Write the structure tokens for this entry.
Amino acid sequence: MIDYGAAPATDEIEIAVFGPGFGEAIAVHVGEGQWFLVDSCLEPGSKLPASHHYLKQLGVSANQVKAIVASHWHDDHVRGISELADLYPDADFLMSSALNSIEATAFLSAHNAITAPGLSRGATELYKVLQRRANVFHVHQRSSILELVANGRNIRVAALSPVPAAFTQSILHFAQYLPDKKGGSPVNHAPELKPNLEAIAIHIDFDGDAALLGSDLEDHHSCGWTAVVSDAWCAARHPGSAYKVAHHGSRTGEQPEIWTTLLEQSPSISMTPFNLGSVKLPTDEDRVRIRSKSKAAYISSGASKRPEMDAAVLKRLGDVCNKLTRVNAGFGAIRLRKQISVRTWTPELFGDACTL
Amino acid sequence: MTRTADIFGSSVVAVGAFNPAIFSPDWLERNKLIGKGDADGATKSSAIIISHQATVFETEWFALQVLENQFSLTSKGALTPAIKDLAVGIFSLVPHTPITALGLNFLAHFKFGAEAEYHKIGDVLAPKTIWDGLYPEGRSAGMQVLSIRIQDADRGSDLRTGNEKRISIQPSDKVRFGVLMLLNDHREIRGSADGIFPADQAASIVDSDWQSSCDDAIRVFDYVVSNALAARD
Amino acid sequence: MTATSTVSRSVNRNSYGFQGYGFQTGLDLNSVSVRENSSTDFAKNFGVQDLRTIPEEKEVVAPSAGVALDREPDIDAAVIQLWEGRVLDVNLENDVMNVLLIAKMGQVPDHTAEIELQWVVDQDRDLVVAGAVFYLTLYKKTRRGSIQNSQELRFRRRPSWTKVQVQKVYSDADQMRAKMRARPIAA
């Protein structure tokens, strides 16, 4: 079990990124014991949501968590988020405005594993939240996620995306996978919208410093990162000294002006990998590109993905399957901590996290 | 480590009022519940019967028997959750069928390495001492079948009502020096509750509970056999 | 052979010994034998019409004669492991599919793998699309004392959405949408 040590001091800010090979979660301390959480994955030992497992170890109580953001609905970003919502009932729950449509909610209703076992875990998690919570907030570009005062500073957490132009694309995508109102063919797992234009990219203004959480937002000429960096309001945000890289470092999550408009020179970088089937991110090319932006670049997991099962079963399975790979091999966390007045973040690596 | 059964199977049984003639391979195929290969194989089999009174046919992986007051879908060969999907699919297509009870059933045959282990199961669960005394000269007693009923503690005085589980164990007729264990997860279907038709309720129960019922059966079978074998002689 | 008056009794007719679901029979069970090519003969002997061609659900009719059939489906498989799989993508050029495998027995982590499409039976080939769910079973088949390793890959088939199910989806959707609240615009 990972020993995360002590909680941050009240005058420290912190960004902790958790990730196995498939999954991502972020816990942010804005000061004076106030936290907000973004996305969720499971800590492999306890099977608890990783952020909760972390906060529990630090002795953070439930009422210290002010908000939970589901940046989008994909499986790897929301495992256990419904449990997080139950564990922190006083925290506001926020999701993308791309889900604020009948098409989206009908999609969640039709595609979850409660309605049709075996279907999307992601849709299931958000479906559960929407069933259990009395209210849920939706956010889009310029929406306020959280505003509070800590250590005499005005902390402002805002959404940089999705942009309104992404909503139409989203609605069209969800509508394709809805059951016909007359009754029709059943559906399997619905593919995710590509590129991902629905995700909530987050800007954290610490009032003297800032950070950018890129979620899985990808680029697109009128939606996505180009729309974000082209927006005057977004471009006027305080440049971030820390960046959780978008979309697992992929080329599709890259937009050069992110680095020149939204970030300081050589920010502290954290990211999570994505390994599922034939998709493996970041690629070697991605790693080279990201390392060229900053030497302080870290990834939550780089562990071996050898299969893990009974040897006899593995041998038998090998008759049918090739390239058998464990999905979540290795779990790690990257913690960036500092006082606002200090220039650079202090990185700490836990578990299988390593330098990129 | 959970003991692996030598043979493991499942059936979904429903009690109600059925029209057996509906449930033909062709009907299942047209409603996309089975593939053409399965449908053709069943239809061309000499053993198929389809009538108002009874429909019976088999494919490589399931056997279906529908009588006027009972529906029974049984796995063949390796158990696959597709059997659950098929039951769900069938019930969903006949929502008006008045089903009154549903059974999620699982069976396992366990073979033992030694005859002594086989006898020990019976000796622990149904000690012979009390029975041997009945006919002591030249006669011996042995357990034929033991059946236990698990009900909710707050069911009230009527032992016949409500959901329940029935676990039974008996000598296996499939494996030498083995036992057959059965778990019947019985569910009552109560009319059109909240406007949901009985067959839809049945479909919903199978869909949501078959896997957990299967997991429980594996746990129960392993628990009984392992604890019986571990008991002091 | 004549049909006797209806006799109700609980009969353990199933080879697995499942108790509790006895069925009513109108025939002396011990005298019924189901022979090869029985469907037509059976129909002739007992005045039961072979209704194989009836496609639609019909109103349930009262029985004139019940039938007891003693079928013993053949099961002789010891499951070693069972996975529920999801197709991640299909590569027709290489005739493979990339899949996610979720083990259903024991605490086995999820794995991804590549499976050649030759393992998919012909009747399931048109079900092989990204997002499709399948079941992969590894088992030992025991027959007359000999044990053979075997595997089965079967794609999930679910029926079309019914109107009731669709209504519930949209009713759910309305309720969930009604809970969504906007956030103020940041300064």
